[in-house]
Write a structure and sequence with these properties.
The chain is 30% helix and 24% strand. By secondary structure, the chain is α/β, with parallel strands linked by helices. It has two domains: 120 residues, 3-Layer(aba) Sandwich (Rossmann fold), CATH 3.40.50; 194 residues, 2-Layer Sandwich (Dihydrodipicolinate Reductase, domain 2). Helix 4 runs parallel beside helix 5, helix 5 runs antiparallel to helix 9 and helix 7 packs across helix 9. The radius of gyration is 20 Å and the shape is globular.
Length: 361
């Protein structure tokens, strides 16, 4: 299979694991041809460390490179839409970090342009392709818990101002626990149970201001502009009912939780922010939850797996698993949670979503 020439835009903190894996674990299908960052030192450091042929310092430069087929966009969330739109307009496929956009309108115009130009568009999170969640998918697909009746997920913590060096973003437009962590939980849930048809939710800002206690901004007060506790109910197209809570407002030592309840048993799904296990299964005729082996590959940090799958899909002429139907469905869901709370009404989802086949490589 001919490798796909990839250009990576954004050489910040998360670029390290992407470049490590794209130039290592997934180098049989991915060729990182160029890196780009508006801070030249970052681009040059990444070029040298990972042996990348070219470094660019503006988006225009990397988009003009005719050798590059696919742009991996790992910029900040507010730049996901503009950088993806530049890539698509330049005739390149695009894969971006989560979320696809910070509002539904920006997601819609990306999907429309990709469809118009016949290009692939998709993005993170790709943790649903890891060994842990794929093992859960196999258990469900093979009938171990019967029909999915309900799902429950939650991400609960007391916020990021005690440890993050620059936590203000998390409390501004495009931030909050839903847009920050919701993509991991929602992507996991729809890959295990299929599309969601409607949402009903409530939100609140529990603390109008936050005091940063981390360095280097210790003592700074943040004004909170977005809901920091979101709780809602999802009606799945299959008839299953799901609940999701995301919060920066509570103290809890059981931060990550996803459960799937079926007609013949239940599964405790591993943290969807990771790729591995543990996976726990309870059968109706069994003694209770028991850990089961993670039988699928990619159990360690395999960030970039979605990029590799998109590259394979491009060469094989198929739909990638982390495609724009999925990333837009997640964006649509996140927007619907907030809109439902604002309006006091049930919100129907704008577009459908079809699960792709389980990971086969």
């Amino acid at each position: 299979m001919k490798k796909v020439n990839v250009g990576v835009v954004g050489c910040g903190n998360i670029s390290g694991i992407y470049l490590t894996n794209l130039t290592g674990m997934f180098s049989s299908v991915v060729n990182v041809a160029a890196v780009c960052d508006i801070i030249p030192e970052r681009a040059l450091d990444a070029q040298k460390k990972y042996g990348v042929p070219k470094a660019y310092f503006t988006d225009d430069e990397i988009m003009a490179d005719e050798e590059i087929e696919l742009i991996v966009n790992i910029t900040t969330p507010d730049q996901h839409c503009p950088v993806n739109m530049m890539a698509l307009a330049a005739g390149k496929h695009a894969y971006c970090e989560k979320p696809l956009a910070t509002c539904r309108k920006d997601g819609e115009k990306q999907v429309a342009l990709a469809e118009e130009k016949g290009l692939l568009l998709g993005g993170a999170p790709d943790t649903f392709l890891g060994g842990g969640i794929q093992t859960c998918r196999k258990l469900i697909d093979d009938g171990w818990i019967g029909d999915v009746v309900a799902l429950n997920a939650s991400m609960r913590c007391r916020g990021h101002e005690s440890w993050h060096p620059g936590p203000e973003f998390y409390y501004k437009a495009g931030g909050g626990p839903m847009f920050d962590m919701g993509p991991y939980y929602l992507t996991c849930m729809i890959n295990l149970a299929g599309a969601v048809s409607s949402v009903m939710a409530y939100t609140r800002i529990s603390f109008p201001q936050r005091l940063i206690t981390s360095q280097p901004l210790n003592g700074t007060l943040i004004d909170v502009d977005v809901p920091t506790h979101i709780a809602g109910v999802m009606k799945f197209a299959s008839g299953a009912i799901g609940t999701l809570t995301t919060s920066f407002d509570v103290y809890d030592d059981h931060q990550a939780l996803v459960e799937v309840f079926g007609s013949k048993g239940s599964i405790i799904v591993p943290d969807p922010n990771g790729f591995g296990g543990p996976v726990k299964l309870m059968r109706a005729d069994g003694p209770g939850y028991e850990e089961v082996p993670v039988v699928c590959p990619y159990r360690d940090n395999s960030r970039g797996l979605g990029v590799a799958d998109m590259c394979r899909a491009l060469r094989e002429g198929r739909t990638p698993r982390a495609n724009c139907s999925q990333t837009f469905h997640v964006l649509d869901l996140m927007c619907a949670f907030h809109e439902s709370s604002d309006s006091g009404k049930e919100i129907a989802l704008k577009r459908g979503f079809e699960r792709q086949s389980a990971l086969g490589f």
